TrEMBL record:
<protein>
    <recommendedName>
        <fullName>ethanolamine-phosphate cytidylyltransferase</fullName>
        <ecNumber>2.7.7.14</ecNumber>
    </recommendedName>
</protein>
<dbReference type="InterPro" id="IPR041723">
    <property type="entry name" value="CCT"/>
</dbReference>
<dbReference type="InterPro" id="IPR044608">
    <property type="entry name" value="Ect1/PCYT2"/>
</dbReference>
<dbReference type="InterPro" id="IPR004821">
    <property type="entry name" value="Cyt_trans-like"/>
</dbReference>
<keyword id="KW-1208">Phospholipid metabolism</keyword>
<keyword id="KW-0548">Nucleotidyltransferase</keyword>
<keyword id="KW-0808">Transferase</keyword>
<comment type="pathway">
    <text>Phospholipid metabolism; phosphatidylethanolamine biosynthesis; phosphatidylethanolamine from ethanolamine: step 2/3.</text>
</comment>
<dbReference type="InterPro" id="IPR014729">
    <property type="entry name" value="Rossmann-like_a/b/a_fold"/>
</dbReference>
<comment type="pathway">
    <text>Lipid metabolism.</text>
</comment>
<keyword id="KW-0443">Lipid metabolism</keyword>
<feature type="domain" description="Cytidyltransferase-like">
    <location>
        <begin position="205"/>
        <end position="304"/>
    </location>
</feature>
<keyword id="KW-0594">Phospholipid biosynthesis</keyword>
<dbReference type="GO" id="GO:0004306">
    <property type="term" value="F:ethanolamine-phosphate cytidylyltransferase activity"/>
</dbReference>
<feature type="domain" description="Cytidyltransferase-like">
    <location>
        <begin position="12"/>
        <end position="136"/>
    </location>
</feature>
<dbReference type="GO" id="GO:0005737">
    <property type="term" value="C:cytoplasm"/>
</dbReference>
<keyword id="KW-0444">Lipid biosynthesis</keyword>
Length: 367
């Protein structure tokens, strides 16, 4: 039976897609569900800086990240900041899709007013509890407020919790404090739900995969080339903090799970994987090869090599991603440009609050 559609519905999405996270991926997942073929337009660094402040990632990094999201069929580089009908027509798209948050130009103009007027605009629900602004806010002060609160997890460090994205008083529904609530439904929506075929070569990798970035992406692409079914083991927040220190991870376990699942190279995720790769894990998933990047491996708390077992089984491979990007380097970018990013965050919320007040005013007047 053929899955070919005679007249496929082509969907257009656009945006900055800075620090691509599971909120972006979920928006694209919903957009793809409204049609058959998803085209994603991405703005240049120049356009983003002009309208909302400097992006964290370069346009080339952002292009690569979006191309790797499994619901994306095509990426258009340098898309206009204000979505217009000419762009939709040029790429044969039936309509444009965006989340239910507010996006405006530097002059406060709705970036989707043209396609809305032409009835070629559809809206999907934004993923609550996550935004680029919030993630930047976490890194600016590196608070532990984003950690999942469990009996053996971390407590909030209140002295530096007033940055945008961590401030309980932040009133904007889009740039306020992160309160992502994970559900099994959300994981199912992101998961392929497939099992490896008997003939598949199973590859296993493990790590934090914190602030999912191009370094992770290039590593997973290379690791995937060693087999047919790639499983990613994600360590718990306490384990990541144990070997990375400071206030890592920036993203909690549930957030990291969704970010990794959105990657087209990943087949399955082990939530809360053991730090040391055990013989039970190797047997349970029928692992053929375990891959690790060229970054140094820290010993387990018992002083033993966490990859001792796959090495003894001759199933361990060092993979060179040929990309030196790390989560620490991203944090360094934020800290070095702290004033710029703080100004960007507060400016963004101020715009959103002004629009919300205007909407409330119009609503009251129409009553």
């Amino acid at each position: 039976m053929s899955n070919k559609v005679d007249n496929p519905v082509r969907v257009w999405c656009d945006g900055c897609f800075d620090m691509v996270h599971f909120g972006h991926a979920n928006s694209l997942r919903q957009a793809k569900a409204l049609g058959h073929y998803l085209v994603v337009g991405i703005h240049t660094d120049e356009e983003i800086t002009k309208h909302k402040g400097p992006p964290v990632f370069t346009e080339q990094e952002r292009y690569k990240m979006v191309k790797a999201i499994k619901w994306v069929d095509e990426v258009v580089e340098g898309a206009p900041y204000v979505t217009n009908l000419e762009t939709l027509n040029q790429h044969n798209c039936d309509f444009c899709v965006h989340g239910d948050d507010i996006t405006v130009t530097a002059d406060g103009v709705d970036t989707y007013h043209l396609v809305k007027k032409a009835n070629r605009y559809k809206e999907v629900k934004r993923t609550e509890g996550i935004s680029t602004t919030d993630v930047v806010g976490r890194m600016l002060f590196m608070t532990r407020q984003h950690f999942y609160k469990g009996d053996k997890e971390y407590t909030v460090e209140k002295e530096h919790s007033s940055v945008m994205g961590q401030d309980k008083a932040a009133r904007s529904p889009w740039t306020g404090c992160s309160q992502f609530l994970p559900t099994t439904k959300k994981i199912i929506q992101f998961s392929e739900g497939t099992e490896p075929k008997p003939t598949d070569r199973v590859v296993y990798v493990a790590g934090a995969f914190d602030i999912f970035h191009v370094g992770h992406l290039d590593f997973l692409e290379k690791a995937h080339q060693y087999g047919d079914f790639l499983i990613v083991g994600l360590h718990t927040d306490p384990i990541v903090n144990q070997y990375k220190g400071l206030n890592y991870p920036i993203m909690n376990l549930h957030e990291r799970v969704l970010s990794v699942l959105a990657c087209k190279y990943v087949s399955e995720v082990v939530i809360g994987a053991p730090y040391s790769v055990t013989s039970d894990l190797m047997k349970h998933f029928n692992v053929d090869v375990v891959c690790h990047g060229k970054t140094p491996v820290k010993m387990d708390i018992n002083g033993e090599d966490p990859y001792a077992i796959p090495k003894a089984m001759n199933k361990f491979v060092i993979v060179d991603s040929e990309n030196s990007m790390t989560t620490e380097k991203i944090v360094d970018r934020i800290i070095r440009n702290r004033l710029e990013f703080e100004a960007r965050n507060f400016k963004k919320e101020a715009k959103e609050m002004a629009i919300i007040k205007e909407m409330e005013k119009v609503k009251l007047e129409s009553c």
